[in-house]
Amino acid sequence: MGRQPCCDKVGLKRGPWTIEEDHKLMNFIFNNGIHCWRMVPKLAGLLRCGKSCRLRWINYLRPDLKRGALSEAEEDQIIQLHARLGNRWSKIASHFPGRTDNEIKNHWNTRIKKRQKILGLDTVTHMPVEEKEKVEEKIETNPEPNSLKEQEETRGKENEAKMVLDGRNDLLNDYEVLCGSLDVGLWWNQETTNSNSQSLSLSLEDSLNPSMGESPSMKEDSIQKWVDSVDSMLSWDGFNQLEEELIFLENFQ
DNA sequence: AAGAATGTCAACCGCAGTCGT
DNA sequence: GACGACTGCGGTTGACATTCT
To answer: What is the pTM of this model?
Structure first.
């Protein structure tokens, strides 16, 4: 007996989202915020399950999403983080504001993995494949554990690093929560009222079609302003701490 | 030009964790 | 502690796009 599905799937729409659905979801969230995903589709008038709405918002509609291909620097950072964190995509994604875990996971599976293979690196351990085989051979032939003292020392260091990592991730999560809890709808209306006298409601078509409403660059500017305003409201002390902790982690490595 | 092969990425599924009762 | 409701995560799928033969 498995768990019941998150929603009654009968009569619910599946597959790609239409512009109209996107529009409905965005308008609803901008005006009401997110309190309970399960209620969102009902209240927004969508024939989707809450889970689907959440995914659509997080991966595609959020105003702070960064569009476009990942840079080489970002790619390198993903590789480093993957070596440290493994397939914990959401943790990796938290290091890239505006990028989603899905995006990074897809990028990893379709491109980086391939690149690693071409370079002769193991995609799990990031070691050169030959070296990895040697290590595995060594473990098989000599499974003796280290001395008790050595084991304790290693465990202690690992725990310390884990605590720092957790703390850092908590800070990043808090930042995301704070961004998410701000009333974007209010901000948006204020922003659009100040900048022009056109329709106050956000229209996805407007942002997709330059001929209607404001130009995409103006919309991007507005979104950037929002992101900047969120940033300016935050204390950066926590991020200074992050920097210190990162240095500690580098030393630990 | 056409079909096959391959790549990309949005969306789905099921599980685990958390929280309230 | 047991249970159900809900959210978030990671693995996987499948539709569409692009490249190759």
So the answer is: 0.61
